[in-house]
Amino acid sequence: MHHEYEETADLTRIMGGHEIWLGEARLNGDQAEMALIFGDNMRPDGSLDPKRINPTVYKPDGSTLKPAISSEKDKHWLTFSCAGDGCYTAIVDLVPVIITQDNEGYHIGPKYQFKNVTYSGAVVQMAKRILSVGDAQPELKEPIHGILEIVPRRLGFSQGEDAEIRVFYEGKPLAETEVKAISEKEGKLMAKTKTDNEGWAKIPLTVAGDWMFMVLHRDPTKKVSEEFDTTNFITTLVMEAK
């Protein structure tokens, strides 16, 4: 494997706030490209092994396609064809990892491999971005993929207004869960709020450019007794404020 394709991301840093997101999106004719990035506060910090990347694109008619993956030093490009107008939703799932903590810090691996374990959890990471081709501006209502998913009320928002998003877990609205909002331009956390009883949250978009909305949901019922005690689901949605 070419050295640029090797995984350099310190995955234990996920516990300190690192995540994946779909950044730059561009359309050249009928070819779309999106950048998959690992880092913190929309700043790259390491590259992922492409073998761990499982991307799916949902086409306007509900069918799916598998984009091609090409790799650079600190990002991976998803490339796919847009055969007609409408919404193309790209979602990336990473192969899960187990992160275990003992007296020496965090490690990758199940808890039975370590002594004096104080924490052990599986981490499931997902990233989503919607590309609008043509004049499509539908109202978005339902999740289409993933156990934890963020759904925006509509495709586009403007600087100075509130982005309205809804969080779903296992297909149902997730109430009272924290949503973080990061601006790519500022490179920092800009807002933090909680969803209401119906899973809705509003975030003020104070600057133009890409924004990442991130949700972490821990489910202790999803465990394997000898390997990990909880599953951490982390999902991101990137949208542009114009």
First and last CA, distance: 40 Å
User: What proportion of the residues form beta strands (DSSP E)?
Assistant: over 45%
Shape: globular
How many β strands by DSSP? 19
**Mean pLDDT, as a whole number?**
93
- The portion of residues assigned to helices is under 10%
Elements, N to C (H/E):
EEEEEEEEEEEEEEEEEEE
Residue ranges: pLDDT <50 for 5 or more in a row? none
How would you describe the oligomerization state of the chains in this entry?
A: single chain
> Major sheet, described briefly?
10 strands, mixed
Number of continuous helical runs: 0
Structural class: mainly beta
From the alpha-carbon coordinates, what is the Rg to the nearest angstrom? 18 Å
Summarize the structure.
The protein is mostly beta strands. The chain has no helices and 19 strands.
